[in-house]
Amino acid sequence: MRIPIFIILTGLLKLSAASDKKTVSESIPQFSLPRLLNTQLVTNKDIEGKLTVIDFWASWCGPCEDALPFYRKLYDDFHGKGLEILAVSLDSEISEAEGYIKKNKAPFLYTIDKTLDFKRTLEIKAIPTTFLVSKKGEILLRVRGTDDKGLELIRSKIKEELK
After folding, report:
1. CATH of the domain at 110
2. What is the model's pLDDT at position 163?
């Protein structure tokens, strides 16, 4: 009996999507990260009560840089309605991350995960990886990469949550 290839691929896609749902609906873990360009710490309290995009990035990551206009537009469109963007750098050197921020001047909460503990806790395997976190601190969405479908999913979920 021959099984059409699209049925096999459909099954594989469902398995892959299911494995990503592991963290959805869980709460974002406690964190305390140094804010870049100043000496303050950013913690869960800073995003409490706000719909928050948490984006893991690095200054050397091409796809991360490609997504910056998308996140800037999200910020412009939804910050006034309660959206926060927490950009978590995985750069090994603070100076690299801060140089990138100064060059790109986006108005996000920029932090750095020097110990990589937050990255490990959330099981980040590749960057960019983006989470959408509810006002109650629950993970609503996890998106890896910057393909148009994933970015549109983020935008549509934000619209849904903020209406």
Report:
1. 3.40.30.10
2. 87
